[in-house]
Design goal:
The chain is of the alpha+beta class and 434 residues long. The chain contains ten helices and eleven strands.
Length: 434
């Protein structure tokens, strides 16, 4: 916006200066022309007075002498006296220029000689000095217009950029807003008065969004809490009934199926309760861990049965110390490894890599070989309940919250998640502060 305003202002300023310069130029040019013509008329009066004296005392030498005295010190003037059908009576300076820069005033002197013939008198003035002055004036006005335009544009650009800093600060405040910081409000103390109504309206919007989001989160937490109790009761009763079915295969099958679904629903509710707490600002209980690889190996051992069943092998490379919540890290690693086990090609190898960067972040990556996730879906896999089309057949075992929990755990540790999938290799992981 600063460049656009400066460009339009530059055009307006330049046009204004050009118009002013043209007015100044033509006013001065007209003044010089008027002054030259007035000067010629004054010279005509003086010469007519000399010619009147010559008629009273017709001595041609005296007239020529008077005209010589008249031209003395006036290098820009020339006087010629002649007859229309006769010789030149007087011609002033030799070598006087005859060009378009010379302005001439001609008049007749009646009864100039005894024969009564009129004499023609030509008074010429060389306008070269005035024309040179006009040329310099035009050059000066052009340079002054350009310099003034540049100065104004630079000044305006600086002022606009300085004023735009307040807008940039407002943009920074807006960029820092997230679902977990909706209770924050924009600060308008350093902003121009023109932006204060916008800030007030935006803060009102944030107030409404924060209230709605809090109500939604409270609703989710309340629903999860309220459903958890009856589900726990149903699970307990089903387990008791299953033990007391006295070998009835039909009852045992039904109760077993119901119990499996109840456990699944209970897992979904626990996951939703965890995500709700994480988004409402729950913090990780971090402690210093000397080896992240040791924790990763414990998670691998926990999944040993699933790995053996799918004929999968896990290779672990790298290690790092970190400051983290061990329980949450185990949960995130378990979700990543479980996700890799589900989609890995049977008999393939799952690579788990741990590294740290110069900024102090630990990076944990789990890669498996299997179907490639389309590029348009890779950014959606961390959304709640999101499953790709190829994964919907597994919806009876996986509810689509595992990677959302991984993202929440990464966020609780000040990190983030990442995912890539190309050439049959899918890598998903998270970073957290070391």
């Amino acid at each position: 916006m600063g460049k656009r305003l400066s460009r339009w202002l530059a055009i307006q300023v330049l046009v204004s200066f050009v118009l002013v310069s043209l007015v100044v130029y033509f006013v001065i040019a007209n003044h010089l022309a008027s002054r030259q013509f007035s000067g010629l008329q004054e010279k005509q009066v003086l010469i007519e007075h000399m010619l009147e004296e010559f008629r009273q005392n017709p001595v041609l030498g005296d007239l020529r002498h008077q005209l010589d005295d008249f031209l003395a010190g006036h290098n820009e003037l020339q006087v010629v006296v002649d007859h229309e059908d006769g010789p030149v009576v007087y011609a002033g300076k030799l070598g006087f220029p005859v060009n378009e820069d010379v302005q001439t005033l001609m008049f007749e002197a009646v009864g100039f000689d005894n024969g009564g013939r009129p004499a023609r008198v030509a008074i010429s003035v060389d306008r070269h000095a005035d024309d040179e002055l006009l040329h310099r004036l035009a050059f000066t006005l052009i340079i002054a217009s350009l310099l003034a335009t540049m100065a104004v544009v630079r000044g305006v650009y600086w002022v606009v950029n300085r004023e735009m800093r307040s807008v940039d600060s407002l943009v920074d405040q807006i960029n820092r807003l997230t679902a977990s910081t909706l209770e924050s409000r924009l600060k308008g103390e350093a902003l121009p008065a023109e932006l204060l109504p916008l800030v007030a309206q935006f803060n009102d919007l944030l107030e409404r969004l924060s209230l709605s989001y809090s109500q939604l989160e409270s609703f989710n937490a309340d629903v999860a809490h309220e459903l958890n109790t009856p589900l726990t009761n149903l699970i307990t009763n089903s387990e008791l009934a299953l033990r007391q079915c006295n070998g009835n295969q039909v009852d045992a099958s039904v109760l077993g199926s119901n119990l499996e679904e109840l456990h699944r629903m209970s897992e979904i509710i626990r996951s939703m309760m965890f995500l709700s707490k994480a988004e409402r600002g729950s913090v990780a209980r971090c402690e210093r861990v000397a080896s992240v690889a040791r924790i990763a190996l414990e998670v691998v051992d926990y999944h040993d049965a699933v790995l053996s069943e799918s004929d999968l092998r896990v290779t672990l490379t790298g290690d790092s110390a970190a400051y983290l919540d061990v329980a949450l890290l185990k949960r995130a690693l378990s979700n990543l490894l479980g996700n890799a086990c589900v989609y890995a090609t049977t008999g393939s190898e799952i690579d788990m890599h741990i590294s740290s960067d110069l900024e102090g972040f630990v990076r944990l990556t789990v890669c498996n070989r299997g179907p490639t996730i389309p590029a348009e879906e890779i950014a959606l896999i961390f959304n709640r309940f999101y499953r790709s089309d190829s994964a919907r057949s597994l919806s009876d075992r996986h509810h689509g919250l595992g990677l959302s929990i991984v993202a929440a755990i990464a966020n609780m540790h000040g990190g983030q998640t990442f995912a890539t999938s190309e050439n049959g290799v899918t890598c998903i992981g998270l970073t957290f502060s070391g």
